[in-house]
Amino acid sequence: MTTSQKPPISFWVISIVALIWNTMGVLAYIGQAFLTEEAIAAMPPEQQEIYRIEFPAWYTAAFAIAVSAGFGACILLLLRKKLANILFITSFIAVIVQSIYTFFMSPITDKMSGFDTGMSISIPIVAILLIIFSNKGIAKGWLK
Q1: How confident is the model at residue 91, as a pLDDT?
Q2: Total of domains in the chain
Q3: C-alpha angle 70/134/90, rounded to 5°?
Q4: How far is CA 131 from CA 86, 114, 137, 141, in A?
Q5: Which 3 state secondary structure label does DSSP give 55?
Q6: Can you give the pTM of this predicted structure?
Q7: Residue 45 lies in a domain
Q8: Residue 26 is assigned to a structural domain of this protein
Q9: What transmembrane ranges does the database entry give (predicted)?
Q10: 106 Cβ partners below 8 Å, 6+ apart?
Q11: Would 88 be classed as within a structural domain?
């Protein structure tokens, strides 16, 4: 049985950085979901190709689940709730579904920039680290 412990400053710093990271994910999803044809036309040709691809509904759903679960988990982390861990795991599973499509099934892989590839690799890594962090928070009694 764990008792409630006051988390260190590092807990709050990591939690806020995680919230900013996941907010960027939510904004990326919203940006993609509401992208207009005019906005696509203003992009470089390589990016236009990527955004004109019709993504499968299950990929879009996984994207939505990943970012909303991750964002919700960060809010719960700041509220010091154990449920954050379950949402981080949910987000990670959705990220893996996205990654499988991105790297193994998608026609965009060869069109991705180095930055896009780096982000696509870093997202599941950060998701795993947030699960580990929330597990530590539960074990230390920082999350109730």
Answers
A1: 98
A2: 1
A3: 35
A4: 8, 26, 10, 15
A5: coil
A6: 0.88
A7: yes
A8: yes
A9: 12-35, 55-79, 86-105, 117-134
A10: 53
A11: yes
Please state, in angstroms and rounded to a whole number, the distance separating the CA atoms of residues 92 and 54. Answer: 24
Give the span between the Cα atoms of 7 and 124, in whole angstroms: 25
3-class state of residue 22 by DSSP: helix
Rg (CA), the chain: 17
| The pair of three-digit structure tokens given for residue 108, joined into one six-digit string | 């965009």
C-alpha distances in angstroms, 9 versus 12, 65, 83, 142?
5, 29, 21, 12
Tokens standing for residue 22? 């996941």
Pick left, alpha or beta for residue 141 (phi over 0 → left; psi -120 to 50 → alpha; otherwise beta): left
Q: Find the farthest-apart pair of alpha carbons in the chain and give their distance in angstroms, rounded.
A: 58
Q: Do 142 and 9 meet the contact criterion of CB atoms below 8 Å apart? A: no
Query: What's the average pLDDT block by block, 10 residues per block, for the chain (144 residues)?
Result: 80 98 96 85 79 84 97 98 98 96 82 84 97 98 96
Residue 34 DSSP code: T
Cα–Cα distance measured from residue 123 to residue 91, given in angstroms and rounded to the nearest whole number: 10
Spatial distance between the Cα atoms of 119 and 103, rounded to a whole number of angstroms = 12
1 lies in some domain: no
